[in-house]
């Protein structure tokens, strides 16, 4: 069994390197609102392929899908007595179906309309996992309904869903999830909020900039605010992954396509923010450095006269992932988050 576990670990590592070789096709991000022409076809991975690269890619995504099933089963086991989890598929702006999860109280009051929260994960190909369990459970216990969109780029939903579009399809899919949630009979569409961490913080900021009146409150936790800066200090393999997976960036780095990266950098659009915003970060963040991202965001929010609150933790345990810890700083951040959204969404 030990040898088999080592083999699977090595296999997953190999598959990750080969994932980008899969023959995928997504509608270009800048044409999301345009109807596809008759005769335009989608291409899918060949599940009966004989070549090693494609077979490894299929194995990789099969493992991701199985992991996701286990994660949802774990949530059911830990919280199923009080929180109902429902997997949904909602339509994004380009009519692509996006997977997600809706969390509601196990027992709901008939005729009541609950405030809704959109929770946005970060990471390069991350997804719903144990790190969000407590936040979801707390939100539902306080009287919210939660949607967790697995925007394009999330893993666990097949090869075609895996392709990343930083700031484009992720933001479109998150906004579509809010629209979907707001249309449910048990949700008050006038009381929607959004919470995001890391890349999810970036998407949260872009969402409240692109739809200034959709959310009554927003929370950005260690959010990436400047993609140009991000591409300047990241290792070469990550820079190439961001550029090469994206139709929007046209396989080009910022030195060849600067305008595209500036357009999806929230720091450049602070003037469009109307939603009250809570910003949380820590001084020892080595993934999204404080001075480069959150510090500049706070300066811009102040300069533009926006409604916001902030708290910077001093050397929080875990740094960028301090929200994953069972620590005083994590508990304080949870308290601040729900006090802030509660003030505007009134659960």
UniProtKB/TrEMBL annotation:
The keyword Repeat does not apply. Residues 138-346 form the Peptidase S9 prolyl oligopeptidase catalytic domain. GO terms for biological process: proteolysis. One of its GO terms (molecular function) is serine-type endopeptidase activity. InterPro entries: AB_hydrolase_fold, Peptidase_S9_cat. Residues 1-31 form the signal peptide. Keywords: Hydrolase, Signal. It holds the Pfam family Peptidase_S9. This is S9 family peptidase. It comes from Massilia cavernae.
């Amino acid at each position: 069994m030990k040898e088999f576990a080592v083999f699977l670990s090595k296999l997953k590592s190999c598959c990750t390197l080969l994932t980008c070789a899969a023959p995928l096709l997504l509608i270009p991000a800048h044409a999301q609102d345009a109807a596809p022409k008759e005769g335009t076809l989608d291409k899918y991975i060949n599940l009966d392929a004989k070549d090693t690269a494609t077979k490894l890619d299929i194995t990789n995504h099969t493992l991701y899908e199985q992991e996701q099933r286990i994660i949802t089963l774990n949530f059911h086991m830990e919280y199923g007595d009080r929180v109902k989890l429902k997997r949904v598929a909602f339509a994004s702006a380009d009519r692509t179906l996006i997977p997600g999860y809706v969390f509601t109280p196990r027992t709901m009051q008939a005729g009541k309309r609950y405030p809704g929260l959109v929770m946005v994960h970060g990471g390069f190909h991350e997804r719903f996992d144990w790190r969000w369990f407590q936040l979801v459970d707390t939100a539902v216990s306080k009287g919210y309904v939660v949607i967790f969109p697995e925007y394009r780029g999330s893993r666990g939903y097949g090869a075609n869903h895996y392709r990343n579009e930083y700031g484009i399809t992720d933001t479109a899919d998150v906004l579509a999830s809010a629209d979907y949630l707001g249309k449910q009979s048990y949700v008050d569409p006038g009381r929607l909020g959004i919470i995001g961490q890391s890349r999810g913080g970036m998407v949260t900021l872009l969402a409240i900039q692109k739809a200034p009146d959709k959310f009554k409150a927003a929370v950005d936790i260690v959010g990436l605010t400047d993609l140009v800066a991000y591409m300047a200090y990241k290792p070469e393999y990550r820079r190439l992954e961001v550029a090469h997976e994206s139709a929007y960036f046209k396989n080009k780095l910022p030195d060849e396509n600067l305008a595209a990266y500036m357009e999806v950098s929230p720091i450049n659009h602070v003037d469009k923010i109307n939603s009250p915003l809570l910003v949380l970060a820590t001084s020892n963040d080595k993934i999204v450095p404080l001075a480069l991202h959150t510090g500049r965001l706070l300066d811009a929010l102040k300069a533009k006269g926006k409604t916001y609150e902030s708290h910077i933790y001093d050397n929080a345990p875990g740094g960028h992932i301090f929200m994953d810890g069972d620590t005083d700083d994590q508990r304080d951040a949870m308290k601040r988050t729900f006090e802030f959204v509660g003030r505007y969404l009134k659960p």
